[in-house]
What we know:
It contains twelve helices and 20 strands. By secondary structure, it is α+β, with helices and mostly antiparallel strands.
Amino acid sequence: MRSHTSVFVGQLLLATVCCSAGLFFLFVGYGAWSDAPGRGWPVLVLGSGLVITLVIPVAATAATRQMFPRITRRHRVKGGRTSCEDGTFVMWAPKSQQDSTQARLARADVLEASVSRYRPDGESTFTTHYGNYTPDEFTALIKLGLRVHDAEDTDAATAFEVTGEWRVPSLCLSAITAGRLVVLVAPATHGTGRTVTPHWPRSALLAGTRTCRVTDLEGRTTIVTRRVERQLQQMRISREAGGVVMNGDTIDLRRLDPHTAARYAVLADRDRTHPEEQAPVSEPGEEARRLADQLPGQQGAFGSVGRGWSRRGGVLARAHFLELRARTTFQDHGPVLDTVLRIQPPDGTTPFDAARRLTVPMNYLTALHRTKEVVLSVSPSGASYDVDWARTNLLAGVTEAKVITPDGRELPLAGRPDTIWTLMNLLASHGLSNPSPVLDLRRRRMREVAGILLDACA
C-alpha cells in the first residue's frame, strides 16, 4: 500500500497539471506588471493566476484525504462512543425495486453463484451518480442458481429451482456467500412461469450480515439474528403493515401500532416457548457461491512493514464496523461508504468510535456476513490509524492464509483469525514484511523468527 506522502505527491502533481493555467497567468501577469505597473489588466491576470495556483495544494490535500484511508482525532465521534453495542451492526443498503402486492415473500437457498459482468470504466478515480445508489456500471451482475421454498416450511418437496442473472448492490453481496436470500415470488400469469425477484436489503438481514433485535412490550430485548423462520415471519408482517422502522438494528414493539405489535408479540411468545436455533453463519456449499476471487479488491497479505514505522514503535490495531451507509460515489474496486468503526487502541485503553468515509473493497463486502473486523496500522505517535486492506482481507478470510514450515509442510489457516492476527503482530514487531498470503518460513530472512512463528501456529 502506498504511503500517505506518496499519495499526496501524486495528487500534487496531478493538481499542478490540471491547474497549470494558473501558473501561466501568474508568470504573464507578473511580467506585465513589471513592464506597466500602472495598468489594471496585469493586476487582474496576476490575481487570477495567484488564486488558481493556491488551489493546487488545497485540491491535492482534499484528494489525498479522500483516497488515503487514514483516521485521525478529527474523525472521532462526539463523546468518543456511539450508542451501538459491540455486537451490533447497522447497514443502510439501497432499496430494492417496488414489489407486486400479489408476490409472496419466500426464502431461497443459493446453490451456486458466479459474476457475469462487472466492468466499470472509471479507472481509479471517484465517480458520482447523483441520486442513483446502484448504477449498472458499479453494480455487479451475478448469475445465481436458487432453490426457492415457496411455502412457510422448507420441505424439499415444495421447493423449486430457478437460474437467472440479477444486479446485486455491493453492500448485499455477503447474502449470496452466506447462501440465504429473501425473494418475492409472483404467481404464473398468461402461460408464463413464476417470477422470482431477490429482495436484497431483506436478504442481508436474513443472512445475518445486518444484526436484528426485538424489544417486546415489556421492554425485554431479544437477539433474532440468524433466526431464519422468525425473521421471515417478521418480514411478512412488516410488509403487510406497509413497513416497520428499525431503530438502528432494533424493532421496538412499543413504537408500533397495536395490531402490528400484537402480531410481533405472538412470534416472540412462540419463540420463548419453542426457541429456534440460529442458522449457521454460512450454509453448506460456500465454495460454489464464493465471489471474492471474481470481484476487485486488494489481495489479502500478512502485510508490508516500513522500517522506520516499526523501529519508531508503530503497531497494529483491530477495529470493527458498527455502521455502513451507502452513497452515490464509487471507485472501480468498491463503493464509497459512510462508516462508523469502533477502534481498540493497542495500549489497552478504552475503545473509541470514529466516523470516516471509506472506499470498501468489493471482495471484502462478500465476507461481511462473517466478519466486520478491520486491521489498522497505528502511527508511532498513536495519533493516526491507517486502514490496511491487505491485512484486513487476510484476517477476514477473503484470501486464504497459509504457512509453509521450515521442513516444507503446508499449514492452512482458514478459519483461524486469531492465529493470523498473532502472526501479523510478530512480523510487524520484528520489522519483517510479507506482502503475500503465504508465509514461507524457509526463506533466509525468516530463519531467526521461524521458531516463534511456528509456535504461534500450534
